[in-house]
Amino acid sequence: MEIYLLLFFILILAIFLGLELISKIPSTLHTPLMSGANAISGITLVGALTLQTDGTLQMVLAFCAIAFASINVFGGYLVTNRMLKMFKKK
Amino acid sequence: MMDFDFTMLQQIGYIASAILFIYGLKMLSSESSAAKGNMVSSFGMLLAILVTLIDVINPVLMLSAILVGGSIGAIFALRVKMTSIPEMVALFNGFGGLSSYFLAWSEFNNQTEISLVMTLTYLTIFIGGITFSGSLIAFFKLSEVLKNTSNFVNSASRWMLIFGCSFALLCILQIVLNVSGLLILEMDLIRIIFVCFLIASLITGLAFVLPIGGGDMPVVISLLNSLSGIAAALAGIIITNTALIVAGCLVGASGLVLTLIMAKSMNRTLYNIFFVGYAASGSSDAEIEGEIKPITAEDAFLVIEAARSVLIVPGYGMAVAQAQHVVKELGDLLENNDCEVSYGIHPVAGRMPGHMNVLLAEANVSYDNLLEPKDINPKMDIVDVAIVIGANDVVNPSATEQPGSPIYGMPILEVYKAKTVMVLKRSMSSGFAGVQNPLFFKENSRMLFGDAKESISKLVAEFKE
């Protein structure tokens, strides 16, 4: 049970860190921030790669979890990159 | 041969990738370093994936899944039009939620006996499920496949939402009671309840977003963005993976900050946005005095040609008409005509946070010229012409003048203080709030009716003659 308390501790710290980081981002960049966040939420890919794959159902679930997370990772970073390249100063 | 400690290497990799994610977000706080920040963040992701891939159970299945998902994502990202970014972000929020949903489902199947951790599995599935089905509805609403729903559907959905949440709470309570020995259910029965729970979480998401109007979508997709991160962080706790927890929390916090900014920019509470909506907040339609004064493109040209300072205020109408490029062209012509051009961007203009900024960036408008209400409002009386392009509620003076109005108190762009206001609009219909706009009836307002892109193209053509 101790490990879970430790993980909760990390969770709380990360939330506060996130709030601090994000509140400094200018409103001009809020759309790229959201699509960038889409990409980061694809981190479930890392978790999905550690899933068990015994039996058909488990294989299907792992496959889907990985595939959907991959859409986010690849799609999210690429579209954010496309957008940020357009932000120019004269 | 395999006495190498993979777990150790993975943990170190996760720490490094967390640093890269954090640093990437930090670099996003300035326009000049933002593109590099995105690269840094993507390296963090690559690192996290690589250290995980060195030790997987079924590499063929896993790699092929990455290949399938990755190519779908890449195609989406390279093909999507900038005007459709809100739809794409909505869909991606959903995929993030769905991935956590499947992850937690698979983890549940591995459990042979009940433990307290299972409550987290249920919570992940609930949040992931809501994120997925809610995002699908948001996607359909944003792409205008789904119009605003009837009052009957809305109240039915709200009851469904209450039912769904209560059912979820009971299911989680059932786990707690089983663990503490107060209730002893067979594992088979628990599995049946679990399947009902899987379905209930999806229905709850539908019921949550269905009654929310299209105009409130900036808040909804921000919240769903946050939920997709929270689901990932919870999934991380279930499988004791620190990378998921840290990255998930960063996303959760990001969506939360945006949600609160959006709600504040509308001067509404989250409760009002999600559970009441504009229609129910008692509207007292005060009589509007004055008359509408339409203007032709020729006359409009004469007005802006004489102007020395112009403020352009874009709204959702500019996105719909895809008018950003002609707007930029008009802005350039005005500048060559010795006129100072700036852009007034309201935080809730468009269908997602920062929507207008991206469209104008696509058209090559310098971000230095994009001003927020608090920067431009004090200088409004020295603006000769304010050109409002398909924006409505964000320039509605009722927000400052009529205490009875549903949008009273919302911070707006006070364009009515400019010497002349030129409103480009398709028809006289009211904005998403369903509130009549007294701006159109003011003495200094001129209405240029028609499609925004066509109207501006006419102005541009006049300039070139």
Description of the structure:
With 90 residues, chain A is mostly helical. Chain A has four helices and no strands. Chain A has one domain (2-86). Chain A has helices spanning 2-23, 30-41, 44-48, 56-86. The longest helix of chain A has 31 residues, at 56-86. Chain B has a six-stranded parallel β-sheet with strand order 3-2-1-4-5-6. Chain B has three domains: 1-79; 84-276, no CATH class; 297-464, Rossmann fold (3-Layer(aba) Sandwich). Chain B starts with 5 loop residues before the first helix and ends with a helix. In chain B, α16 (398-401) links the parallel β4 (385-389) and β5. Chain B contains 17 helices and six strands. Chain B has helices at 6-27, 31-53, 59-79, 85-110, 117-142, 151-180, 187-209, 217-238, 242-265, 270-276, 297-306, 316-321, 324-336, 355-362, 373-376, 398-401, 452-464; strands at 309-314, 340-344, 370-371, 385-389, 420-425, 445-449.
User: Average pLDDT value of chain B?
Assistant: 91
This entry's quaternary arrangement is heterodimer
Percentage of residues assigned to helices of chain B: 55-70%
Strand order of the largest sheet of chain B: 3-2-1-4-5-6
Q: Share of helix among residues of chain A?
A: over 70%
Q: Major beta sheet of chain A, specifics?
A: none
Strand content of chain A: under 5%
Structural class of chain A: mainly alpha
What is the domain total for the residues of chain A? 1
**Helix and strand run of chain A:** HHHH
CA-CA gap between termini of chain A: 56 Å
